Amino acid sequence: MSMSFEAYMRDMVQPMRDELTRIGVTELRTPEEVSEALDNMKGTALIVVNSVCGCAAGQCRPGVAQALQHEVKPDHLYTVFAGQDKEATAKAREYFAPYPPSSPSIALMKDGQLVHFIQRHQVEDRSAEMIANDLIGAFETYCK
């Protein structure tokens, strides 16, 4: 029995996807889904660029989960998966200018405008709690 690389990666990545979808984050898997969610968006949206790396597992996803326990949070919660849903991720990154591609990363948008962005280098050197506190501060500023 042989398994294709794509099937293997799907099986390996699914728990990483589930870590966010389980807490109410909606996956955007195609460029069309990204456009539908973010074009002409009203209110606030958190967009997590997920990744298979260790800092996504140890700091980014847990930090997002902690932040979303706060009473003030964005109206919409989305994620794209870098390296897996490549076209959707590329489309989402168009909304994050002027920041270069970075994964994992976390964007907060308000009425279609990027208002807060956490790049990979700001994930790697910080704890999940520090990331959560950063996000909570942004939620308090932009999501009330």
From TrEMBL:
Superkingdom, taxonomy of origin: Bacteria
A Pfam family per the record: Disulph_isomer
Xref: InterPro entries: BrxB/BrxA
NCBIfam families: YphP_YqiW
Entry's family note: Belongs to the bacilliredoxin family.
Protein name per its UniProtKB record: BrxA/BrxB family bacilliredoxin
